[in-house]
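Project standup — Tuesday

K.O.: blocked on the structure for the chain from last sprint. Re-posting the sequence here as requested.
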Amino acid sequence: MLVDGGRRAHYGDFYTADRSDEPVAVVIGNCQAESLRVLLSTSETFPVRAVRVPPVHELTGDDLPFLRSLLANAVMLATQPVRDDYRGLPLGTRQLTGLLPPSAQVVRWPVIRYHGLHPFNAIVRHPLDRSLDPPVVPYHDLRTLTAAAGLDWRPDLGPRRLRAVAADAVADLARREEAAGVDVCVSDLLLPAGARAAHTLNHPGNDVLLGLAHRVQGAFGHTPDARDPGRTLLDSVHAPLIPEVVDALDLDAAPRPHWVVAHREVDDERVRAAQLAWYAEHPAWVAAGLDRLAHRLALLAAPG
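H.V.: unblocked you, prediction finished:
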């Protein structure tokens, strides 16, 4: 079974062929899972080592024997909700918990999405290719989607409307937390975190992630003593922060008109132009986006 050398080096413990009997903790989920693992590893009292695992959307069939071996030694599993047979593989939460020793503890935590700071940004998937993202940044923009559809959509950027969008984003996460039956929630941490709540809609900031780590530790029955690692987690992309949102939410932050991608500024107009051209070649994503985002389009639409 061949595994890319760079991948094997990055996830070395995961690909250990002759695994010892060392009890370990495993964190399963999207890109947020690695941040949670990092934070758990800062604890001075967390009783076992948390092993670095590829994000669930990057796991392949070749990874399954390694994952089974790891879970067989796991005494703790912290997992986001994953549906059965995800991407055609037995990676669902129910399926993975079935591979654990009977005495292992399981804590379920939510997939965190929050668009309150970035009301125009969205993730849109289509059955034609669920992994396909638009160019430059992997986020769609309501203004660009509606322009691509030929719609004369104008947002209301008044403070009351933007506060309603932020509250709706929190309520949406709270509904998903309840529906998924998670053991710890984070929706109540978003508004208090202010501008530090998220870098993009699916990249929460350190404040929220640290709050999550403390709650996961508590749910496992251990001291919530994880520490900030001294660096920004999930730092690859930062979305623009418009002045109207800063004012409406009374944020302690300066507006930012541009994206930051891999620590480099990217003009928002460049993103918009590239994505408009992309929509011309991928019209199915325009229709899917308008359908998926209908509620937020209505919530933000200017009267008349």
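K.O.: great, moving the ticket to review. The two ends are 61 Å apart (CA to CA). Residues 159-180 form the longest helix (22 residues).
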